[in-house]
Amino acid sequence: MPTDPGPSLERLHQVAETLLAIRSADQLFAAVAAGVPGLIEADGAAVLIRSSMGDFFQVVAANGRAEPILGRLLPLDGSLVGWVVANGEGLSTDDMDADPRSHSVDGLPADLRVALIVPVAARHATIGAVAAFRRRGAPSFGELDRMLLRALADQAALGLDRVALLDDARRKELTVEESNRELVEATRLKGQFLANMSHELRTPLNAIIGFSELMAGESLEPEERQDYLESIARNGRHLLGLINGVLDFSRLDAGRMPARLETVDLRRVIEDAVADTASLRSVKRQRAEVEVGAEPLDVVVDPEKVRQVLFNLLSNASKFTGDGGVIAVSAVSTEVPLPIPADRAGDVVRLETRPAVWVAVRDTGIGIAREHLDRLFQPFSQVDASSSRREQGTGLGLSLAKQLVELHGGTVGVESVPGQGSTFWFILPVSGPVRSPKT
């Protein structure tokens, strides 16, 4: 065995430089195992790291005659590696079979019996070990060998810390990039919303101004005057609805939308919403079907806000369904997992199975392509946002419906097949939200 540490220290320096240039843990472990035989004249080497599977160590890298044990597991208790990690110090043995602390390793060649094992500590915790092996009858590992292997393990720990810092930096960089992308997309969507909103507001305003000027400047027959007045009123209601939608969205976005909860039979709310949207369907000769059963569907909700959700869904269904189509509304009692708000910021939102009512609005309309479904409930987002799109709107209706449902502790979703129609659904817990909405 060498007694002059000079060449060994030079090899250690070379291995250390290699480790510091590595950017992944797997590559670092492999480089450590590869560096051991040339550093202390070993027949094989292995790196063992504490496994996430429990009280085990896994061989994450192996070199030389120890390669067959790559990927094997060793128990924390009753093994030489476990003793090293538990005590935070190295050990050497001339016969692993005879050592009472040893545990046989499947796949390790029978002639590798002489061992030197040192701990690897990273970020103030002992996470594993580096092991060197020699054949039975070979010279024992000496103090210089122990010093060199321990120095290599320390370099491995520094490399792991560096890899962890690089991973943290990469994660932060990706987070910043994602945030920037989201900001750019939000800016684009809001710009698109403002352009659409300007168009939406101008349309009824122009109609109101135009009919008003006609009434002021011409002598009209009673029938014409009545038609003009009805057009002014209709466009005024449309304009008011647009403004109310924006105001409701801003209040929900700020968490200041009041909710007046009471126990109601959801069947009545559904029937009222269907009646309120009858004029939309009559223009296109569409048929409405209501399937709510004979038993009461009592839920704790703000009935006006649930009616608004239904109005939005029914209006959309009618808008995107052709003449003579069918709009169907159904509701059933069920039990489903619903989100329970976290007690503190950063806590994971958990699910709890609760009695609920599932409501669905189905149509036989144009349907929606799968790649567009995830955009539907985003604010300011529309499948077709061009100024020449066939159907107009602000892009807030479905986002508003989603937030109103979530205000009640529920959830929303959609299924659709292009050319066959869509089903928009929402689920409301029978007992109302776990926490009362802000008032």
Q: Can you walk through the features of this model?
A:
The structure is a single chain. This protein has helices at 5-20, 25-40, 80-87, 143-217, 222-253, 266-276, 278-283, 303-319, 397-407, and strands at residues 44-50, 56-64, 73-75, 91-93, 112-122, 125-135, 262-265, 287-291, 298-301, 326-340, 350-363, 411-417, 421-429. Strand 12 and strand 13 form a beta hairpin. By secondary structure, it is of the alpha+beta class. The protein has 9 helices and 13 strands. The protein has a 6-stranded antiparallel beta sheet, sandwiched between helices. It starts with a helix and ends in a 10-residue tail after the last strand.
- Biggest sheet: strands side by side, in what order? 3-2-1-6-5-4
Helix % is 40-55%
**Cα-atom Rg, whole angstroms?**
36 Å
Amount of beta strand: 15-25%
Classification by helices and strands: alpha+beta
Number of continuous helical runs: 9
Return the string of H and E elements: HHEEEHEEEHHEHHEEHEEHEE
Largest sheet: 6 strands, antiparallel
Q: How many extended strands? A: 13
End-to-end C-alpha gap: 81 Å
What is the general shape?
elongated
Low-confidence regions: 384-393
What is the mean pLDDT?
80
